[in-house]
Amino acid sequence: MASTSPMGPLGALRRPARLDHAIGLLLAASYFALLLGNSLDVGVPRDESFYFHAADRAGDWWLGLLDSEVASFSPEEIKKGFAYNHEHPVLMKSLFGLSHHILHDELGWVQHHITAYRIPTMLMAALALWLAHLLGVMIRGRAVGICAALCLAFMPRVFFHGHLACFDAPVTFMTLLIAWCYLKAARSRRWAIAAGLALGLGLATKLNTFFVPFTLLMVAIVDGWTWKRRHGALRAPEGQRGPLTYYGCIAVSMIVLGPLVFFAHWPWLWYETVDRLQFYVSFHARHVHYPVDYLGHLYFRPPFPVHFPFVFSALTIPVGILIAGCVGLAVTARSAWRQFKAAPEVGAAQVDRRSAEVFLLLCLAVPALVIALPYTPIFGGTKHWMPGMPFFAVLAGVGIERIVRGIWPAAEGRGLTLRIAALTGLVIAPAAWATLAYGDHGPAYYNALAGGPSGAAELGMPRNFWGFSSVEVLDELNEQAEEGALVWWHNATRGATDAYQRDGLLRKDIRYTGDWTAPYSNWGVYHDHREKLPEELDVWRAYGTDWPVIGFFLDGVQIIGVYRRPAPPAAPPIPPGGR
Amino acid sequence: MTDTAQLTPTDDPPLLPAYGAPPADSVDPSPREEPREKPADRPAASGRRFNPWWLAPLAMIAGIALIVHRRAAVPERADWKAATAVIAEGLAPGDGVTWAPHWAGEGRLFLHGLPGFHLAEPAEADLARYDRVWLLGAFGRSADDLPAGHRVLDRQTFGPLNLDLVEVGGERVIGDLRADLEAVRVTRSKGDRVERCDFWDGRGWHCTLRKSPDRTRACLGRPVAKRLRNRRRDPHCGLDPWLNVSRDVRVIGDHPRRCVWFHPIGGKTLRAHWPSAPVADGVEAVLDFGFTDKVITDHTRKETRTRPARLRLRQGLDGAVLGEQPVSPEKGWRRWRLPIAPAEGGGLSVEVETEATVDAHLCIDLTLRGPRTGAE
């Protein structure tokens, strides 16, 4: 009998009201508008240019389903649609492609190709705010929810990735969605189905979500253990439902629906399934290690430093959010630990908090811990543990509330709300400024602890990421380059320059010479990476000058240097004694 | 009651009051309810002791102050431009121009036409090539960071940018292999068999050509677009891109080093005879050298494939050996100094040998140095 069943251990969480949903959606809509308006200020990184190409192939395949003359399910059509870039699942690529086709090509609602591809990511980045808000509401209340959403919105690196037609912002959203569905499913069997579907969508987005069920399993174990302490047995009394029921449903759903959705969404796996799955798994299991510039040391191979994700996070989350998040983390961890040690007789409400706290802590920690393993590839920087950031944002909300209550213990009602709002302003205003000032170049952003981008350069931290910054020099290049100029674009791919040209950001006559072609170019666009320094020297050698003519500098630190060959090549002279 | 209805138990009040709603005063399962955190227990409530919770907003404000302070130290592009304009006006023969820190390179945009050079670490600066050095110092750097022995003649500021004019003290470079490379004779030999490397490609000397010298020269002089079209078929105009002796710049010891590419070949002796080397009494040879970081540490292999090499300095072309220096396959830009004396035949030779050619990416910078005199 449900009416007599006691609450599950997670049952003390609040239920968001309609107003909470409205606030969350308003925040999400505002963020989406901000991302959309800023789209062309964020350049196209290497991976994104590949995904543009893959997106069109995948999008065409899905649209082919509407065309009776296309044998969409034939191996040839599937190969045409999905063979390219088959190391990643196709949910997002399909959405990018469909968005581009429908919103740009068909309807013409979105003027620029680049933006049209990016809209699904932007939507998900925005919806992540909504979910972070709801999570905050569930765990601590509306104020925490609002703080959480704002903190997530104004992390410059999260903001940067929120633009790109890549998988990192979407997988952050998906992780949050899975976690959200899990929380709901922990007290409603119907939500178990949603949890399984969400996992499937997550797996269809990026491999990171593979770790989410294990994280949630740990939460379930703690929750079940809590139940057992309170009730003396894991099994619920007759006629009641306990964690075994709920988590059993979630487990079945995730085990069945997760892989099913994953398999169903990816036509590439429908033929030669074993071989293609094997490739997919082995590609990521044996991923090549790219160089990592970290605290003045260039790492080319493992073992990588265990503290990498933690130090990197400490230097790249705006200081206010970082402090609030650390306070929230400490408060939450301390509370979880106290209740873990507490006798089972303590108030049920207190015990109820534990699993929610463990949930937050584990969802934050696991993505970073996976990267902290010494043999995990860490070339992507912060984006690889970005799925933990919404949970850090919720903890920041918890921290803000706790700081206010610590400073003004007697504050209640409107006075308390106002104080929370004031502290939130102190946290968010500088973060929002940093996001607007540096968000277009998120990977170059460092907080006050690092001393900003220039302090990070001093510390020997990286400041670039695969070619996106070239967008900053397009105007000057358009002005100065001669007709048909041959440009070596370094990390910016041909796909990226094609995208700029299609959207009118780059003159169409400017030519792309290819990788490692500095000697065969008249212009060189060097993206500052420490491990790529030899390629900048290739330009110096080929052009006979070390000095750029155009540059993009962030706080005085070179992000892009554009070189111009000072004089055309000439036949070398014959020195005395030479032939 | 359905499953979902259990989400909000009726006895579970909001953790925080809803906006505009009356405050909650019943059970709050949040950590603040823990006994030691009740308002009555907090000393801060008495106002007599500092409430440590204030540290959090204070730290946030400190964070803002830090970033404001840091940004105030960033030179504007106009500052760099103005400072380099002053340099161009006051430039004299024997001057060099550099900047610090090396990562603050916005001023490089304005170094065209100036005798600029890279300064990896101001504290280890080797300024012996110059009489005076203009140092553009950003983020608090200045000539004060240079090693002792130099004298600051003038200091100007352009916003947060320092411009120091430094009179260089200590030894003076009187001969530079890199600068004199056109006059150098390069050979490689094995036993009695000597191969002349006498084709000059504009940057260095080559031993082997796939085409005639004239056709190679014509190829090197082709327009860039044509070179690009022929890139796959003939990327280097028939020249060996590795086995040559050329003016170069390479990343060694984490920084760009101006040097002479001096790639040894397994089992052979590579020799550069510098006939015009200004050898004289009291002159010292200073040989900086190192394998490129790329082959020593900056790769994904477990170990470097580079084998040890041996550098040798010799009087004249075939004269007495002045000294030998082992080059171990380790990261770094190393220095070898030795006094030299005039000898018959004139000049100086530098030789290198190794047991294996693979990844023997050696670069050297050989200078001759003497005391600095007023006439220079």
Question: What is shown here, in short?
Answer:
With 579 residues, chain A is mostly helical. Chain A has 21 helices and seven strands. Chain A folds into two domains: 2-423, no CATH class; 468-564.
Q: Could you list some keywords that capture this structure?
A:
heterodimer, A: mainly alpha, 2 domains, 5-stranded mixed β-sheet, 5% strand, B: 376 residues, alpha+beta, Translation Initiation Factor IF3, 3 domains, 6-stranded antiparallel β-sheet, 5 helices, 18 strands, 13% helix, disordered N terminus
Structural commentary:
The complex is a heterodimer of chains A (579) and B (376). In chain A, helix 8 packs antiparallel against helix 9 (189-203). Chain A is globular, with a radius of gyration of 26 Å. In chain A, the strands form two sheets. Chain A has a five-stranded mixed sheet with strand order 4-3-5-7-6. A two-stranded antiparallel sheet of chain A has the order 1-2. With 579 residues, chain A is mainly α. Chain A is built from 21 helices and seven strands. The model of chain A is unreliable at 1-9 (pLDDT under 50). The longest helix of chain A is centred in the first third of the chain and has 27 residues, at 113-139. Chain A folds into two domains: 2-423, no CATH class; 468-564. Chain B is an alpha+beta fold. Chain B folds into three domains: 77-170, Translation Initiation Factor IF3; 174-207 and 243-370, Jelly Rolls; 209-240, no CATH class. In chain B, strands 5, 8, 9, 10, 11, 13, 16 and 18 form an eight-stranded antiparallel sheet that branches. In chain B, strands 7-6-12-17-14-15 form a six-stranded antiparallel sheet, with no helix packed on it. The longest helix of chain B has 18 residues, at 55-72. Mean pLDDT of chain B is 88; it is low at 1-45. The interface between A and B is large, with 114 and 96 residues.
